[in-house]
Batch of 2 targets.
Target 1
Amino acid sequence: MCGNTAFIYNDELLKYQFGSEHPYQPIRFRLVMDTLLEMGVFDHLLRPLRSELATEEDLREVHTEQLINIVKEMSQIGTGCLDMGDTPVCEGLFEGALAAVGATVTGAECIARGEFDHAMTPGGGLHHAHPDKAAGFNIFNDLAIAARRLQRNYGYERIAIIDIDGHHGDGTQSIFYDEKILTISLHRYGPGFYPGTGAVTDMGEGEGKGYSINVPLPRCTPDEVYVPTYEKVVSAALEAYRPEIIIHQFGTDAHYTDHMVGMGLTTRTYEKVAEITHHLAHDHCDGRYLVTGGGGYSADASRRIWSLVVCTVSGSFPLNPEGMHLLRDSGLNRKWKVQQEEFHKRLDYLFDEVIPLIK
Ligand SMILES: [Zn+2]
């Protein structure tokens, strides 16, 4: 199975930052580019592509004029805070946000135009952004803006957005809650855990009922539980939905070394998830598969995971096999110490009550 892959990058992405002490660090994007260059994996199957910046018009597809103006003004002064202090504004943040959205839109465009089958950018994946408010380090929702571009310019009707960030993709879900755009989110869920939404019973409403799929996971969920759950849920939902493209928010913060989330995944899960989804893209939508970044508060884990994903999806591996080995975890993941019974009940609910609604 093959296809052409674009790795989308632009140094402007580094402007998407909240200060040197903030957990969200855009240096991760540069580190992936450097790693891919060092491994020598760019070839005829995998090519680097410089992303365009998004325009204010792109933002208006999803966001209110008021939010756009507030971010623009605060970014010019380089001070202030969005989202009750979580998301401070540094000078140039607006331009950084345009770069983040632009990277994802560039990926969607190059796939829709048939220039590439797959595209990956480590930027974007800003799934907490709502139409009228920035939240959780996320200013503008690049995933939703890219989906709107595909609907408007290319007539796409069936777009699947899969989100594996450790946190629920609440902004993306809310934007499409009453539409037949399929959103699937696997995330840690429980009392007090951000953002608090994403119960299995959140399934969409009106026209969109059954098109919001949520897989709430307990703390410390390990590879052995995550991978079969992912495969089962995503395969069944995509089989029913028959997407024209898959957009994949590939946040890395459910990795076991990431202290913001406290899940138990290793690089084994991320490689497997990329492999499964890549296959599903070839099965259902001629390989059209766009991968973005997302959360990830260990820069090294993010660098390794996203580099592995680019190799897995493109089929471009370093000549020296040691190169892949260096990206993988050697340690064991955390112990699974939750009530599995409760978790299986949630999964049964999904298969009995939600997925059958997809037409
Ligand atoms: Zn996250």
Note: Strands lie at 5-9, 46-50, 81-82, 87-88, 118-120, 159-163, 182-188, 212-217, 245-249, 289-292.
Target 2
Amino acid sequence: MNLFSYLCPTRITFGDGTASGIGDILSEMAVSNPLIVTDKVLVEKGVLDPVLKSLADSGLKEVPIFQDVPSDSDVDCVRRAVELGKSKNCDSLIAVGGGSVIDTAKVVNIGLSMGGDLLDFEGINNLYSPLMPMVAVPTTAGTGSEVSAVAMIKDYESGKKLLFGSRFLYVNAAVLDPTMLVTLPPRLTAATGLDAVTHAIEAYVAMGANPITDSLALQSLQLLFQYLPIATASGDNLEARAQTLLASTMAGMSFTNSGVGIVHALAHTVGAKYSVHHGIANAIFLPHGMEFNIEASAARYAQVWTYLCTAFSGCSSANKALGDKFVSVADPVQAAYQLVNAVRELLKDCSLPDKLRDVKVPEFSESSLQELAETAMTDPAIMFNPREASPDDLISILKEAY
Ligand SMILES: NC(=O)c1ccc[n+]([C@@H]2O[C@H](COP(=O)([O-])OP(=O)(O)OC[C@H]3O[C@@H](n4cnc5c(N)ncnc54)[C@H](O)[C@@H]3O)[C@@H](O)[C@H]2O)c1
Ligand SMILES: [Fe+2]
């Protein structure tokens, strides 16, 4: 077996209503002046309320709130939040939101803790000391940012996503409260869920996969295939919200240690250039990226397929459809294609698009294909892909996905 190390220093608290315990978590961390980072939708929908109440109950009544995080957060937004945090002498951060909010708060933390220019810390391992304590309360089940060592922020000048990666970007505490997701609309539930599915599938075949990341990825996929269609159709089903939230965090713990791959490299590139939501971009590229990787990873995909077939073979009558769909096959290549088909069916079950042309991406010219392929070739995600890809391979996938 290859050598590996596995890291997840984040304390995870899970359960309905746990966001109401955030005041206690701050007390345990011995901090008393947090900056809350969130977005306007969450403030308007009252998703932030239990957090504010918990802080007030702990004696923190005038907590500064930065609520201007857009869906594709950018460097300018981070700089404005850093200014607010500095002016209020904040000693900690609380991120309440989806991946955009959590990633923004992580980079704000760099700005508040390290000083200097943010862009000096872009890239992998460019932080040299711990940051201020931070708590993340995810309100989507997808990115796994609450347990990952990375943050991605858009740079509108270059039209690219900037990656910040460091062990100091693990947050201190993640509060997984399924009730915080009840207001998430169906399409965003499905799109963010497909981000988690992509994390788990890419993590399982990635170059850095190890037995710990494997087990997290497999369990995550079982939960997502079973519960994502339910959470999408019935947003107030707390059991489905809970299972998909757990699955997303487990997929995050997996991919942040194993790496992702070609699907993420393409999704980052196309998502940043044409403002396609990260989960939707992953959903569209996932079947194509898997088909490309079958040459190198048929046996690994077959292991996933066999695991899911075994898990669903004893399904109750309510889930008989899963047992009927996931049927073992002996040939690894055939099993790998079965898994790709199951992903395509999951997209359909969740009413997600499967073509870039359906999400307002303009038809590619030869020069735009070249440019996109070159950008994706330099995306750090592609380093972990199990099969080496050339720019021509990426262009073929871009054309197929269009
Ligand atoms: N750091 C990581 O490990 C990592 C991993 C994957 C993706 N990402 C990043 O995460 C970002 C995407 O995050 P996302 O997919 O969670 O979407 P998001 O954070 O962009 O949120 C999408 C929309 O959903 C709304 N929303 C969120 N929670 C809601 C709720 N409970 N009720 C109602 N509306 C709600 C938001 O207001 C927003 O309009 C991208 O920038 C991507 O690059 C980071
Ligand atoms: Fe992702």
Note: Residues 141 and 202 are 17 Å apart (CA to CA).
